[in-house]
């Protein structure tokens, strides 16, 4: 007799909309799922990391197809969502290559976007019942 | 800010908090994992710094 298969409950929220919201506002997907503490923690930490990257003279990379590594860095930058577009609209993130903190700041900006992508994937897993 | 060590500690703390909150649901588990990850980052950086200190020879 086959073992009973655990069936995940149907998602209470549309997963793709959840991912879009989570991408635009770090932590918002977890807030939508009712995980308030996690959502607030993600928002505070990821926005702080991105803001620190801008403050420390980091560069928001342009989407440059002829430079694959620059294009990948740009995609990672975009991963933070609305803060990226705010910084772009305000003309921040020009970068100061001679600043001592330049490479650190670029790492902050890139990793903030990548971590937000990880947070969005976590919210997706919760929404579709793969994670408790 | 030009202290590379403080920049490293800030980065390690941010990454550790996000990873710990992703992986654990209880507050004590999150704190333990965050300290473990951040300590690993900083400790590994210091150890590698000392190992690489003589280079270039």
Write the layout of secondary structure elements.
The complex is a heterodimer of chains A (132) and B (57).
Chain A: H1 15-24, H2 28-32, H3 36-55, H4 68-78, H5 82-89, H6 102-127
Helix pairs in contact in A: 1-6, 3-6, 4-6
Chain B: H1 4-23, H2 27-51
Helix pairs in contact in B: 1-2
Question: Overview of this structure, please?
Answer:
The complex is a heterodimer of chains A (132) and B (57). With 132 residues, chain A is mostly helical. Chain A has one domain (15-127). Chain A has six helices and no strands. Chain A has helices at residues 15-24, 28-32, 36-55, 68-78, 82-89, 102-127. In chain A, α1 runs antiparallel to α6, α3 (36-55) packs antiparallel against α6 (102-127) and α4 packs across α6 (102-127). The model of chain A has no long low-confidence stretch (mean pLDDT 91). Chain B contains two helices and no strands. Classes of the chains: A mainly alpha (132), B mainly alpha (57).
Helix proportion of chain B: over 70%
Number of domains of chain A: 1
Number of alpha- plus pi-helical segments of chain B: 2
**In sequence order, what are the helices and strands of chain A, one letter per element?**
HHHHHH
What characteristics describe this protein?
heterodimer, A: 132 residues, mainly alpha, 61% helix, elongated, B: 57 residues, 0% strand
Quick structural gist:
The complex is a heterodimer of chains A (132) and B (57). With 132 residues, chain A is mainly alpha-helical.
């Amino acid at each position: 007799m086959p073992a009973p298969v655990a069936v995940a409950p149907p998602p209470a929220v549309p997963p793709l909309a959840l991912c879009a919201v989570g991408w635009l506002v770090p932590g918002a997907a977890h807030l939508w799922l009712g995980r308030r503490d996690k959502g607030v923690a993600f928002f505070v930490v990821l926005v702080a990391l991105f803001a620190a990257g801008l403050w420390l003279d980091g560069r928001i990379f342009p989407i440059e197809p002829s430079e694959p590594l620059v294009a990948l860095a740009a995609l990672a930058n975009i991963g933070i969502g609305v803060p990226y577009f705010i910084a772009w609209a305000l003309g921040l993130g020009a970068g100061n290559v001679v600043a001592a903190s330049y490479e650190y700041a670029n790492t902050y900006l890139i990793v903030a976007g990548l971590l937000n992508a990880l947070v969005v994937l976590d919210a997706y897993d919760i929404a579709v019942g793969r994670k408790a | 800010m030009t202290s590379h060590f403080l920049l490293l500690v800030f980065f390690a703390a941010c990454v550790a908090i996000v990873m710990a909150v992703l992986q654990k649901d209880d507050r004590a588990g999150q704190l333990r994992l965050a300290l473990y990850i951040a300590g690993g980052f900083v400790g590994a950086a210091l150890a590698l710094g000392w190992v690489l200190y003589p280079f270039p020879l």
